[in-house]
């Protein structure tokens, strides 16, 4: 068993190289669900508490991202029963650029309609910048499965974006009314 100070140092050595990409991943997963900083903090705390049980540095990355995904999924399940405005965070963006907000909302809605594994693969690859091999480790899947998830996610978003040309105004109005 590690001393507390050794555990902190070892944890920080494993976490620091992933910090920026992990924050981007959490930001993309938390839209309309919870505050990004809350997701990061909850995840880091949960992973830190179980840190001694993680077998290797590569398992740490996988465990970190999987834990964040699980916390976001649990928060989404809980949020379905609350009346909070899921787009409150996005409304803040409107102060700077209404056009950006509209695009952001449409893309966020399109991504939120994806199955969880496709959404996670897309966020890890496009937002966090992970390689397909790294995503395979995180998702415990083969390379062809991850590539298939990415392809399907992109195609689904493309179809939803084409459909959104018709309902752009309805989407924005439904959020602000």
Indicate the overall shape. globular
Which percent range describes the beta-strand content? Answer: under 5%
Task: Report the average pLDDT across residues.
Answer: 78
What radius of gyration results from the CA coordinates? Answer: 18 Å
CATH topology value of the largest domain: Arc Repressor Mutant, subunit A
Order of helices and strands: HHHHHHHHH
Please report the number of helical segments. 9
First-last Cα distance: 55 Å
Poorly predicted regions: 166-177
Number of strands: 0
Report the major sheet: none
Total of domains: 2
Helix-and-strand structural type: mainly alpha
For the record, the CATH class of the largest domain is Mainly Alpha
For the record, the CATH architecture of the largest domain stands as: Orthogonal Bundle
Helix content percent band:
over 70%
The CATH homologous superfamily of the largest domain is called Winged helix-like DNA-binding domain superfamily/Winged helix DNA-binding domain
């Amino acid at each position: 068993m590690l001393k507390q100070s050794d555990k902190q140092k070892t944890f920080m050595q494993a976490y620091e190289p992933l910090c920026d990409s992990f924050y981007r991943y959490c930001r993309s997963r938390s839209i309309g669900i919870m505050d990004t900083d809350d997701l990061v903090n909850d995840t880091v705390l949960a992973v830190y508490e179980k840190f001694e049980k993680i077998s290797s540095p590569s398992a740490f990355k996988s465990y970190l991202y999987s834990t964040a995904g699980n916390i976001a999924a649990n928060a989404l399940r809980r949020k379905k029963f609350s009346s909070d405005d899921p787009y409150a965070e996005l409304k803040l963006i409107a102060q700077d650029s209404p056009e950006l907000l509209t695009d952001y909302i449409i893309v966020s809605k399109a991504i939120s309609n994806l199955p969880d594994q496709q959404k996670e693969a897309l966020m890890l690859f496009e937002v966090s910048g992970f390689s397909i091999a790294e995503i395979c480790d995180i998702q415990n899947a083969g390379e062809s499965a991850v590539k298939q998830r990415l392809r399907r996610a992109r195609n689904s978003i493309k179809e939803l974006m084409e459909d959104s040309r018709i309902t752009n105004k309805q989407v924005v109005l439904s959020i602000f009314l």
